[in-house]
Fold this sequence. Notes:
Layout: H1 16-33, E1 46-51, H2 57-68, E2 72-75, H3 90-97, E3 103-108, H4 113-118, E4 125-130, H5 136-149, E5 156-160, H6 167-177, E6 182-186, H7 195-203, E7 207-211, E8 223-226, H8 237-243, E9 262-264, H9 285-303
Parallel strand pairs: 1-2, 1-3, 3-4, 5-6, 5-8, 6-7, 8-9
Amino acid sequence: MKFKDQHIISMRDFSREMIDHILSAAEVMEPIARGEQRSDLLAGKILAVLFFEPSTRTRMSFETAMYRLGGDVLNLGSVDASSISKGETLADTIRIVDGYADAIVLRHPKEGAAQLASEFSRVPILNAGDGAGHHPTQTLLDLYTIKRESHLEDLKIALAGDLKYGRTVHSLCYALSLYGAQITLISPKELCMPEEIVNDIVERGAEIIETDSVEDAINDVDVLYMTRIQKERFPDPAEYHKVANRLKITTESLKDVKPGLKIMHPLPRVNEIDPKVDATLHACYFRQAFYGVPIRMALLGLLMGAIQ
């Protein structure tokens, strides 16, 4: 498989073989990610981080991944302090930055921005989220979390919350379809998974169940993937308030679930998971956030040709 110099834009571009290869590479990286081993694998390499939207986990895990492998990070910083505030186009920004770095991580509020950037960049573009579109590196760390904490084969998983605007669940559905997962979609009818995505993943081999009740769905699944209702994605604030606080997990919700159920969340959370759930054996969302480091280390090593 050829990963060197490739763009990472959408999970639709990945085969199961490619995903498995990345997950295996991440396992090798995990001791380095934990600081138990040292590495200069990417010494002399520079990663440019361009975030046009706020981020904590994605930005910092990419930076950590690069530093753990001996590389350096070039951060755009505040958009207001860059030439973008003067009207510079995304295409021109990419043309400039690709002369400074060996790869570019891009987060942008407009769907399709990463694809556009890839058409102008001479170095790999890693899509760190484009509006309500895709977030492939989040999906890869989600798959790695499922592999480490549960199992990918014969998986029963429930995706709950904002399935209309949630780019994390859009990308994850495409990947899970490659593993023949049984996927239960839980959301208010106003926030259901777009029909074209449902049809697409069914054609790819996934089994889909749709409901608006968490309690009716979680007792038979191996993984519950919660998401927040994303206020910033709603064009009408009144529509947001209609669905806010509709879905919530408490310790009481978990009384009849499988002992091995794992609860995931891409974070940040608002109030969809009660903090008391954190102390249960089901919670693995903080470990999930850490798993972003070895996954992104693996991707950077593969794209920059440091590993095969």
